[in-house]
């Protein structure tokens, strides 16, 4: 694989992937890694600041910030990745159908996309949360509804680009079924670009989920989530500003890593296109 | 050109109908009965009788399309019904909140235009040098930083520690500074990147090389580069105006700014559906109108974009 080789040479991409793998593992093994229970309160030990016992200090209810941060990976990062995955799957299925079959079905799917894309996604998400009420499942559903149209359209154009290629045309003339062509030729060649799209956007989904949780519309207390931790930090900002730092830095690093990785992936694929 | 405008206007009609329909079914899909919610928030026990009366008052007993028709014909005339919470007309609440949001969006817009233009020009002049790299780093971090965190940090530093600006509310004229700076941060990152890349690319165009060969002043050459690079940024900027207005939601909640975003989030917590509906409807109309204007302006500037509709 040319792309893997190219990525391996790219130092930022390697560092970012490594960092993200560590973060994901930390999230999976949070129950073993976290020194304390993330929701257990200890009012006597509140807002201790950094010390040996509590590496990142405790919050206003005496909960260990480091443990909350580790468990927060599960909500913030994992939920964003799951959301992205479902969105991509829906976009791929609809985009592939529209791109491969064209005609009426393509027309219907595209007009639907037009309507959904004429809504700014922030407003769409607020509208759906407004209707279904706050909560993490509703946020996932809302962001999928808000984003699927964009991916369907992007993936459709990727599929169309490939169906025009001569080897696909040849497979068609040779009498292979559409399903066979989709499976054998289109899927492998479009997967790369689709994964770039997905990586580029995980960062923005993380920002959105934490923003909604910050407003109190997403993850509900006491589940640890980075955006909500910042909301709680806001209330004790005047007396204990340090508590704003760990969750903010966590979001910043993870989002930056996803953005960097997405950019590198994009470069890797662009170069490939240049060679053709 | 006339043909293009006509076609473009026609094509936005189905979109507007679709949007109005979507924002209408929101209420009908919600799990809780609006009549019951309306009673509960006014602390009336929802007996069967009271619910039935409320349903009649809210015209919930009509057929689905009958309700839609009533709602859409009232909405077009600016009547979005009454708030479930205080019984006041939704339009009055909106009228009070919209100027605050527009003012916030306008100030942010001015900041975005000035800062990103200056930063992009500095980056182009000093391409590859320390200051260019530094600005690009700041831009990159700006894209990864959650806006509410920037807001909190600014609030802590400039309002709590240095006491330069009020922390929240809209009482003094200086109140707008912190929310506007926070709001513009993410957009500045995008435009600096866009404008800088365009300008750096145009450095290698023949007309610039020729201008340099003619020995023109650096400022003149920079003007040429700027004018030719700005077009795509103007399109992107035009598209971002409705996004900017919709994006005030988070910022308004941090800084307790009395705009539509805050109104909407409060309404979500209170299950005050008419306000949510009105917010969604107005935002969608704004979005469609802005897209229409941007498309027409682009088509007027560049005839090539008129094809393919």
Describe what you observe in this structure.
The complex is a heterodimer of chains A (276) and B (309). Chain A has one domain (2-275): MetI-like (MetI-like fold). The relative contact order of chain A is 0.14. With 276 residues, chain A is mostly helical. Chain A contains eleven helices and no strands. Chain A has helices at 2-9, 11-28, 30-33, 65-101, 103-117, 121-132, 136-163, 166-173, 178-215, 226-235, 245-275. Chain B is an all-alpha fold and 309 residues long. Chain B has a single domain, classed as MetI-like (MetI-like fold), CATH 1.10.3720. Chain B is 76% helix and 0% strand. Chain B has helices at 2-29, 34-41, 48-57, 64-76, 90-125, 130-144, 147-161, 177-202, 206-213, 218-246, 248-254, 260-270, 273-301. The two termini of chain B are 12 Å apart. The chains are: A mainly alpha (276), B mainly alpha (309). The interface between A and B is large, with 41 and 48 residues.
What layout of secondary structure does this protein have?
The complex is a heterodimer of chains A (276) and B (309).
Chain A (H helix, E strand, L loop, with lengths): L1 H8 L1 H18 L1 H4 L31 H37 L1 H15 L3 H12 L3 H28 L2 H8 L4 H38 L10 H10 L9 H31 L1
Chain B lengths: L1 H28 L4 H8 L6 H10 L6 H13 L13 H36 L4 H15 L2 H15 L15 H26 L3 H8 L4 H29 L1 H7 L5 H11 L2 H29 L8
List keywords for this structure.
heterodimer; A: 276 residues; mainly alpha; MetI-like fold; 11 helices; 76% helix; elongated; disordered C terminus; B: mainly alpha; flat
